[in-house]
């Protein structure tokens, strides 16, 4: 076999590999959307779930997913951006910075179930809260923090040097420069990163099984008092999210319509993650256009 | 002028004379002064606090899981040797409980290596397709595909594995369907985007002169890829595979849904099996906190933690080789 035909065969194989990857994705999406969309109805989205009978919905799980995401981001975003600012602006090269960098690396590579176990130990047993939204959100913060730190550090580092120097040259202090010059111009990339991280948090289940629990109490959506036990806004109640729901109906559920419920829920999950992705791209490009005045 | 907003861009454009007209310079100077320096200190303390929280989270995880994971050996007297090497897992046997986790450790390593074996050629092949074969249109198609694959939550992979892959294997290949093979396939698809993304980065960061030099010598594209580009990118390609393996090793729910979760050592790819993560997910909920069985689950968690440190060290080693 001469080298020309070997080259042709190799190219063929690479085309084949690319085709396989594309087919995997198309197959997955086709299966989820084809089977899921026919199970999504207004009833499915607004009815409470059932433990034994068929015909349950995902109302509480859907709300819990968004609420847990919201609480997680409320904690993780300020912490993550603060960490990013420290790494990009204040950290001097040396031992301490190396240690922090290693810590971020360790946190990023921990399996989510290990973070769930840590959450169980710390936020469920040690604090005596039991399964709570807050515990779940704190576990997800640990899971999510390294991503936000990395995104904000990269975004801050890619702010043009001239902007920062101009501000400092005007006599503005370092922190004020960060607040009024660097952060605003790093904001679009940070926001894009946060929205992408939200998609990851939204679909996360392993860290939540042990921290936010597998059940949701009966909720009264008219009750907006965050300290009441039946209020959906109470952060000290157990909450089963959508991703956890898919897992639990498949592995320990008793309902007869497992297939319908989980394919519908999977479709809702995928569509939400897709929306997060598109939103991130759209907002990123919109703000970019606004700031740089490119058409 | 009341609508005027004071943004950094205006400052740089020199617009701030407008600002000066609004507030006299004397007032501004009197107003700032000390409190500006206070803000400076406050800001610095704030971000240092964030960094400290990150460090303490990492240390807390290590210490908490470490002490909790060692309890079964220290307090309950489970033998470490038995724990790692015995294949008998009978924690509920009243007379003679046995705590051998070798089948689960084996299961974890088996699915990890097998899925890396499937995902590595696909991922690196995809990366080469994007960077060498069809850099313009191929990348435009494959890049979004990979990003969408990353976005699919792991439970959804597990659910599809359970409802499509398991029946398919049961009917066409044999066995129960719940098997090492199902776990491997699900994990391969899950780690594929990780491997592809990093491999693509490493291939596209290779200097252009390498390719041009090779083509100038009359090498074909395949020869260039095989003899020049892959060897040059090898350390990063290995990092890509190791990162994928780290993800596979720690993945819990998707594997748990398809692997069958039996406590016996599998004898073939079609046998049901279990991994450390699946046993933890399955049993953590219905064992009493503080019991010996529960403590052994924490010891398995400690193994996961130690392995994730090991993967980091391996990646460090690989990237130190790259710098040379």
The rounded distance between the terminal residues' Cα atoms of chain B is: 59 Å
**Overall pLDDT score of chain A:** 89
Mean pLDDT score of chain B: 86
Radius of gyration of chain B: 28 Å
- Secondary-structure class of chain B: mainly alpha
Strand content of chain B: under 5%
Distance between the termini of chain A: 53 Å
* Residue windows where pLDDT falls under 50 for at least 5 positions of chain B: 10-18
The number of E-state strands of chain B comes to 2
**Domain unit count of chain A:** 1
How many strands, which pairing sense, and closed or not: the largest β-sheet of chain B?
2 strands, antiparallel
Helicity range of the residues of chain A?
over 70%
CATH superfamily caption of chain A: MetI-like
Side by side, the strands of the main sheet of chain B go 1-2
Shape of chain A: globular
CATH architecture of the largest domain in chain B: Orthogonal Bundle
Report the CATH C-level class of the largest domain in chain B.
Mainly Alpha
Measured by residues with Cβ under 8 Å of the partner chain's Cβ, the largest interface is: A-B, 97 and 90 residues
Explained architecture:
The complex is a heterodimer of chains A (295) and B (324). Chain A has 295 residues and is mainly α. Chain A has a single domain, classed as MetI-like fold (Orthogonal Bundle). Chain B is mainly alpha-helical. Chain B has three domains: 26 residues, no CATH class; 42 residues; 226 residues, MetI-like (MetI-like fold, Orthogonal Bundle). Chain B is 76% helix and 1% strand. Chain B has a two-stranded antiparallel sheet with strand order 1-2. In chain B, helix 6 packs parallel to helix 9. The longest helix of chain B is centred in the first third of the chain and has 41 residues. Chain B is globular and about 75 Å long. About 3% of the residues of chain B have low confidence. The chains are: A mainly alpha (295), B mainly alpha (324). The interface between A and B is large, with 97 and 90 residues.
């Amino acid at each position: 076999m001469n080298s020309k035909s070997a080259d042709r065969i190799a190219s063929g194989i690479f085309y084949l590999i690319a085709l396989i990857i594309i087919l995997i994705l198309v197959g997955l999406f086709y299966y989820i959307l084809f089977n899921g969309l026919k199970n999504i109805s207004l009833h499915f989205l607004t009815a409470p779930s059932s433990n034994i009978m068929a015909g349950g919905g995902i109302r509480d799980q859907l709300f819990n997913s968004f609420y847990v995401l919201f609480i997680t981001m409320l904690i993780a975003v300020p912490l993550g951006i603060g960490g990013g600012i420290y790494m990009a602006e204040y950290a001097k090269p040396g031992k301490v910075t190396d240690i922090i960098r290693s810590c971020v690396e360790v946190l990023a590579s921990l399996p989510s179930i290990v973070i769930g176990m840590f959450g169980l130990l710390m936020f469920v047993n040690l604090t005596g809260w039991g399964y709570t939204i807050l515990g779940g959100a704190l576990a997800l913060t640990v899971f999510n923090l390294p991503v936000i730190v990395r995104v904000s550090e990269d975004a801050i580092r890619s702010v043009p040097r001239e902007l920062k120097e101009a501000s400092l040259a005007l006599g503005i202090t370092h922190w004020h420069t960060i607040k009024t010059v660097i952060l605003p111009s790093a904001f679009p990339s940070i926001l894009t990163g946060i929205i992408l991280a939200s998609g990851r948090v939204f679909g996360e289940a392993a860290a939540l099984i042990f921290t936010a629990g597998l059940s949701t109490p009966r909720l009264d959506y008219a009750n907006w008092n965050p300290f009441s036990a039946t209020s959906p806004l109470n952060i000290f109640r157990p909450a089963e999210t959508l991703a956890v729901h898919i897992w639990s109906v498949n592995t320990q559920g008793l309902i007869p319509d497992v297939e319908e419920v989980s394919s519908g829920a999977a479709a809702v999950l995928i569509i939400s993650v897709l929306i997060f992705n598109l939103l991130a791209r759209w907002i990123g490009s919109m703000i970019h256009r606004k700031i740089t005045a490119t058409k | 002028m009341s609508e005027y907003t004071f943004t950094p861009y205006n400052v740089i454009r020199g617009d701030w004379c407008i600002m000066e007209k609004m507030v006299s310079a004397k007032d501004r100077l009197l107003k700032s002064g000390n409190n500006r320096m206070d803000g400076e200190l406050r800001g610095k303390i704030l971000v240092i606090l964030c960094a400290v929280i990150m460090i303490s989270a990492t240390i807390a995880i290590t210490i908490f899981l470490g002490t909790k994971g060692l309890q079964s050996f220290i307090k309950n007297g489970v033998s470490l040797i038995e724990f790692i090497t015995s294949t008998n897992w009978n924690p509920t046997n009243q007379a003679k409980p046995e705590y051998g986790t070798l089948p689960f450790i084996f299961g974890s390593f088996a699915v990890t290596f097998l899925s890396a074996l499937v995902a590595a050629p696909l991922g690196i092949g995809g990366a080469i397709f994007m960077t060498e074969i069809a850099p313009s249109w191929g990348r435009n198609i494959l890049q979004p595909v990979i990003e969408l694959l990353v976005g699919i939550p792991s439970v959804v992979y597990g659910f599809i594995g359970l409802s499509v892959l398991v029946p398919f294997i049961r009917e066409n290949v044999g066995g129960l369907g719940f098997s090492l093979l199902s776990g491997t396939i699900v994990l391969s698809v899950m780690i594929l985007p990780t491997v592809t993304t990093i491999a693509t980065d490493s291939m596209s960061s290779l200097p252009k002169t390498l390719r041009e030099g090779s083509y100038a010598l009359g090498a074909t594209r395949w020869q260039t890829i095989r003899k020049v580009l892959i060897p040059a990118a090898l350390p990063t390609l290995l990092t890509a595979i190791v990162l994928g393996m780290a993800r596979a090793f720690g993945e819990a729910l998707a594997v748990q849904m398809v692997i069958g979760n039996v406590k016996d050592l599998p004898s073939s790819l079609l046998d049901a099996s279990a991994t450390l993560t699946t046993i933890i997910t399955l049993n953590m909920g219905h064992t009493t906190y503080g019991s010996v069985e529960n403590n052994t689950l924490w010891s398995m968690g400690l193994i996961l933690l130690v392995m994730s440190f090991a993967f980091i060290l391996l990646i460090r080693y690989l990237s130190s080789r790259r710098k040379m």
